[in-house]
């Protein structure tokens, strides 16, 4: 009968729909709460990361420590995700040169509660907390754990 | 044994349901209670907590962080990242806000939030403009109690 064809088609569609929902949800929970891959490029983290691009694995489980390389939402643009190193935790005193091109004048700031101070490893070409200030903890997306590509540099991202 | 497989089946279904529910709550929309009277009379116009409003928070807006002045948003506190507040955006990037002493420009990537009940609200007048990335969703409706069902205009 014609109606049993539609019955079967409907059941198949429902099964596929549930499978899609399960896979999508599993991927979402894994990447949002456990770990996720990321592509990092640019000169600001030389020599830790290649300027021409790195595929890395970042995790969201650990509490941050000084020296961790992190991915975070830029305070200047929530759609941008820079990668920098945590140089100061809340309460730390950080000193930096205000305008390296101009003179050696430096400032010292105490990192406020709930924030971290991030700087690129290649400070000569890095837009970081020295420009946009300390980053609220909730903007940090994950801690870089492992480099997957380029293959010759496969391995942990160190402190 | 029969009862073991039954428990296992129920656990699997509950786990899957939980994961799907968590994804819906993170990606589509969730329902959260409003605590305190900082957004009175928009939310919680009475003072008793058993009458707290529950609101629907839309998460689609987080795709590219498109917000506008007047949106009521949920955001993480800049100093206590586990605490979340609900306030209204009164200044978008580039706009000027006049506070008690002078006039402040809202920086790029930030917004100025204030509670509708200015007398009783901890907001940008205290902790300054907040990065848009701290926002966790936009409040679109009051869904409980039934007599206060309403759409929140932006």
UniProtKB/TrEMBL annotation, chain A:
<keyword id="KW-0999">Mitochondrion inner membrane</keyword>
<dbReference type="InterPro" id="IPR052064">
    <property type="entry name" value="Mito_IMP1_subunit"/>
</dbReference>
<dbReference type="GO" id="GO:0004252">
    <property type="term" value="F:serine-type endopeptidase activity"/>
</dbReference>
<keyword id="KW-0472">Membrane</keyword>
<comment type="function">
    <text>Catalyzes the removal of transit peptides required for the targeting of proteins from the mitochondrial matrix, across the inner membrane, into the inter-membrane space.</text>
</comment>
<dbReference type="InterPro" id="IPR036286">
    <property type="entry name" value="LexA/Signal_pep-like_sf"/>
</dbReference>
<dbReference type="GO" id="GO:0005743">
    <property type="term" value="C:mitochondrial inner membrane"/>
</dbReference>
<feature type="domain" description="Peptidase S26">
    <location>
        <begin position="106"/>
        <end position="149"/>
    </location>
</feature>
<dbReference type="InterPro" id="IPR019533">
    <property type="entry name" value="Peptidase_S26"/>
</dbReference>
<dbReference type="InterPro" id="IPR000223">
    <property type="entry name" value="Pept_S26A_signal_pept_1"/>
</dbReference>
<feature type="active site">
    <location>
        <position position="44"/>
    </location>
</feature>
<feature type="domain" description="Peptidase S26">
    <location>
        <begin position="25"/>
        <end position="96"/>
    </location>
</feature>
<dbReference type="Pfam" id="PF10502">
    <property type="entry name" value="Peptidase_S26"/>
</dbReference>
<protein>
    <submittedName>
        <fullName>(rape) hypothetical protein</fullName>
    </submittedName>
</protein>
<comment type="subunit">
    <text>Heterodimer of 2 subunits, IMP1A/B and IMP12.</text>
</comment>
<dbReference type="GO" id="GO:0006465">
    <property type="term" value="P:signal peptide processing"/>
</dbReference>
<keyword id="KW-0496">Mitochondrion</keyword>
<feature type="active site">
    <location>
        <position position="84"/>
    </location>
</feature>
<keyword id="KW-0378">Hydrolase</keyword>
<comment type="similarity">
    <text>Belongs to the peptidase S26 family. IMP1 subfamily.</text>
</comment>
TrEMBL record, chain B:
<keyword id="KW-0472">Membrane</keyword>
<protein>
    <recommendedName>
        <fullName>Mitochondrial inner membrane protease subunit 2</fullName>
    </recommendedName>
</protein>
<comment type="similarity">
    <text>Belongs to the peptidase S26 family. IMP2 subfamily.</text>
</comment>
<keyword id="KW-1133">Transmembrane helix</keyword>
<keyword id="KW-0378">Hydrolase</keyword>
<dbReference type="GO" id="GO:0006465">
    <property type="term" value="P:signal peptide processing"/>
</dbReference>
<dbReference type="InterPro" id="IPR019533">
    <property type="entry name" value="Peptidase_S26"/>
</dbReference>
<feature type="active site">
    <location>
        <position position="87"/>
    </location>
</feature>
<dbReference type="InterPro" id="IPR036286">
    <property type="entry name" value="LexA/Signal_pep-like_sf"/>
</dbReference>
<feature type="domain" description="Peptidase S26">
    <location>
        <begin position="10"/>
        <end position="106"/>
    </location>
</feature>
<dbReference type="Pfam" id="PF10502">
    <property type="entry name" value="Peptidase_S26"/>
</dbReference>
<dbReference type="GO" id="GO:0006627">
    <property type="term" value="P:protein processing involved in protein targeting to mitochondrion"/>
</dbReference>
<dbReference type="GO" id="GO:0004175">
    <property type="term" value="F:endopeptidase activity"/>
</dbReference>
<dbReference type="InterPro" id="IPR037730">
    <property type="entry name" value="IMP2"/>
</dbReference>
<dbReference type="GO" id="GO:0004252">
    <property type="term" value="F:serine-type endopeptidase activity"/>
</dbReference>
<keyword id="KW-0645">Protease</keyword>
<keyword id="KW-0812">Transmembrane</keyword>
<keyword id="KW-0496">Mitochondrion</keyword>
<keyword id="KW-0999">Mitochondrion inner membrane</keyword>
<dbReference type="InterPro" id="IPR000223">
    <property type="entry name" value="Pept_S26A_signal_pept_1"/>
</dbReference>
<feature type="active site">
    <location>
        <position position="38"/>
    </location>
</feature>
<dbReference type="GO" id="GO:0042720">
    <property type="term" value="C:mitochondrial inner membrane peptidase complex"/>
</dbReference>
């Amino acid at each position: 009968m014609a109606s049993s064809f539609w019955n079967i088609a409907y059941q198949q569609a429902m099964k596929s729909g549930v499978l899609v929902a399960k896979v999508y949800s599993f991927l979402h929970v894994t990447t949002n709460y456990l770990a996720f891959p990321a592509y990092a490029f640019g000169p600001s983290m030389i020599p830790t990361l290649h300027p021409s691009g790195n595929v890395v694995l970042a995790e969201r489980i650990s509490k941050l420590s000084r020296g961790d390389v992190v991915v975070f939402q830029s305070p200047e643009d929530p759609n941008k995700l820079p990668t920098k190193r945590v140089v100061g935790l809340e309460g730390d005193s950080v000193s930096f040169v205000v305008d390296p091109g101009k003179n050696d004048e430096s400032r010292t700031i105490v990192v406020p509660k709930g924030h971290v101070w991030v700087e690129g490893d290649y400070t000569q070409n890095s837009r970081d907390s020295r420009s946009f200030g300390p980053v609220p903890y909730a903007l940090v997306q994950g801690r870089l754990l492992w480099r997957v590509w380029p293959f010759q540099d496969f391995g942990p991202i160190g402190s | 044994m029969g009862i073991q497989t039954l428990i296992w089946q129920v656990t699997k279904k509950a786990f899957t349901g939980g994961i799907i529910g968590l994804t819906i709550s993170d990606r589509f929309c969730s329902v959260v209670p409003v605590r305190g009277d900082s957004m009175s009379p928009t939310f919680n116009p009475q003072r008793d907590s058993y009458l707290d409003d529950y609101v629907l928070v839309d998460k689609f807006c987080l795709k590219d962080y498109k917000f506008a002045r007047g949106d009521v948003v949920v955001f993480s506190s800049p100093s206590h990242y586990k605490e979340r507040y609900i306030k209204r955006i009164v200044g978008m990037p580039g706009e000027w806000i006049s506070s008690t002493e002078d006039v402040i420009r809202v920086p790029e990537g930030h917004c100025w939030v204030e509670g509708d009940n200015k007398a009783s609200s901890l907001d940008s007048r205290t902790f300054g403009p907040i990065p848009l990335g701290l926002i966790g969703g936009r409040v679109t409706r009051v869904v409980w109690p039934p007599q206060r069902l309403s759409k929140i205009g932006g």
